[in-house]
Amino acid sequence: MKSAVYYGEGDIRVEDIEDPEIENPEDVVIRVTHTCICGSDLWYYREYDDPEEGSQTGHEPMGIVEEVGEDVTSLEEGDRVISPFSTSCGECEFCRKGIYTSCKKSEFYSPNGTLGGAQAEKLRIPQADGTLVKVPERYEDNEEVLKKLLPLTDVMGTGHHAAVCANVEEGDTAVVIGDGAVGLCAVAASKRLGAERIIAVGHHEDRLEVAKEMGATDVVSSKGEEAVEEVMELTNGGANHVLECVGAESALNTAAQIVRPGGNIGYVGVPHLESADFVNQMFFKNVRFEGGPAPVRNYLEELMEDVLQGTLDPSPVLNKVVDLEGIPEGYDAMDNREAIKVMVKVGEE
Amino acid sequence: MKSAVYYGEGDIRVEDIEDPEIENPEDVVIRVTHTCICGSDLWYYREYDDPEEGSQTGHEPMGIVEEVGEDVTSLEEGDRVISPFSTSCGECEFCRKGIYTSCKKSEFYSPNGTLGGAQAEKLRIPQADGTLVKVPERYEDNEEVLKKLLPLTDVMGTGHHAAVCANVEEGDTAVVIGDGAVGLCAVAASKRLGAERIIAVGHHEDRLEVAKEMGATDVVSSKGEEAVEEVMELTNGGANHVLECVGAESALNTAAQIVRPGGNIGYVGVPHLESADFVNQMFFKNVRFEGGPAPVRNYLEELMEDVLQGTLDPSPVLNKVVDLEGIPEGYDAMDNREAIKVMVKVGEE
């Protein structure tokens, strides 16, 4: 089969590699129909981290079940399925608590995980009963709906997690820091949870336009102190709900500055920190700080329901489409910020 | 009047200074009857921070109202009152939300605040209606009860805040890091909130004995990796409720290591941090991290009620008593860890 393979900084190639096979009785193998390139894929593309050369890439798979392990009970050949960016058994203590990313059997897709990559024609998925969610049959061939569902593999669930961790509820004012795909999905999630005012903070005019389309009532197009001042002005002294969707230290500092005393910060970007100054800022304001890798599996059904009934549409983040051979071009477009997020239509004739 | 005054590292003197007077119509002046020396007073005593020489000291006052400003409506001369370590108006947005330490009119006692110090014969207290809580008349002269109420000025409220922030509820397992007065009060608070198992982590055998007296079901008498291993063993992989009552980076690292995925850390020690490694540890486990300076005023009535009905007794932390002239000796005893916390009986003949 064909798969995208990592060869170092800025070097992703599409190559022929061996087909994956069932290895354990809880596995399925899917034929990938749709996948994405993620902002987090740029970490290795830019060599901020350094996976093994020759590793497969991608962690956002949607596809059709091709082979079914003998202990899999809920899936059969031909089912159209979505997978979160990590697998989960669905049965352990942490899955039952909804913290699927801490599942005792959790595995992650390549290049940083133990599984194959989703930017490929086929993919083995372990713990298939616990991991996968079926797309109802009537939507199986509706490309428009499938595109809206695709972000539920990662960024829409992650944006929603930011909103949940920031305790966003009906009538609230939420500030979303970051205008990448996760930030934009966090805007949509805040709107869905009933926030009345949603302030998107970023510094790309085109993305802030998408933020408005997805539910932002206000946009702040600046950075650092200037952004802080604008938000403080707009919120009369800080917001009770801040969604930090970047992970950079500067973004956490901004979050700690603009949160109102007694407020909440939800954070979903992997923290990249040199110092901990923002912790003291939070401390003196008695802020609640909660977040982590999104337990996407926990949110998949409820988000899918809203996509299918037409009240949620994260697809505007997918503003470029490539086929499997176009993956290197897709990485390049994201690296150059020409694309917010790239959809890969795999195996399209 | 006599007051304790700061003169640098290890140098606290009791001197004659001018009596405080009513300055604003919302003020009262109290005659201090009881106060304490706090673990946090050791920061300046050891010159980790550096207030102005000649400043008064102490922030945990209990006493009798002597003079009443003309806008004070709820207090009169002769009332026996308790004050939290910070003042609050009781009316602003943050007071109404229970975050009294973020009150827009909040002031703090000396040496680091704008007010006088509580280790003195008299004290001016602003925003008296919002700040002070009256001790019911029938307990006014009951020295045993007064000693139990005294920790409500700070450490008992702070320990309770740790438990509230760590989301301790009926039946829970809580781990308390720190065997100082706040940690011991956090043990009592966890018990009061219904925790079934309370593991106290410290490294002073005598204090861990007090922890048992105050409700600890298990004690771990070690530090660092060794303490982590013991707690992980006792909790079969980490606790859902961790109360960090120290503020040192090592204590926050321990907290982040022993918290269970999806669990809660309440933190009430002012963070003293060089790095932010513990943030990433928390992130990957989806931990909720909440805390700050305790809004003691928010908890004072409910804690007083339980002290008065005999179900809460934080007085074991006050294991040394001095008079006003004995304050320097009291600091010395705390500095040498001969005393957990010192009670100062002011003006006793």
Summarize the structure.
The structure is a homodimer of 349-residue chains. Chain A has 12 helices and 15 strands.
Question: Would you write up a description of this structure?
Answer:
- 2 copies of one chain form a homodimer.
- With 349 residues, the first copy, chain A, is α/β, with parallel strands linked by helices.
- The first copy, chain A, folds into 2 domains: 2-154 and 295-345, Alpha-Beta Complex (Quinone Oxidoreductase, Chain A, domain 1), CATH 3.90.180; 156-291, Rossmann fold (3-Layer(aba) Sandwich), CATH 3.40.50.720.
- Chain A is 30% helix and 23% strand.
- Chain A is built from 12 helices and 15 strands.
- Chain A has helices at 41-45, 93-96, 128-131, 143-149, 155-165, 181-192, 205-214, 224-234, 249-258, 277-284, 296-308, 327-335, and strands at 2-6, 12-16, 28-37, 62-68, 80-82, 122-125, 133-134, 173-177, 197-202, 218-221, 239-244, 259-267, 288-291, 318-323, 341-345.
- In chain A, the strands form 3 sheets. In chain A, strands 3, 4, 5, 6, 7, 14 and 15 form a 7-stranded mixed β-sheet that branches. In chain A, strands 10-9-8-11-12-13 form a 6-stranded parallel β-sheet, sandwiched between helices.
- In chain A, helix 5 crosses helix 11 and helix 6 (181-192) runs parallel beside helix 7 (205-214).
- The mean pLDDT of chain A is 96.
- The interface between A and B is medium-sized, with 31 and 31 residues.
- Strand 13 of chain A pairs antiparallel with strand 13 of chain B.
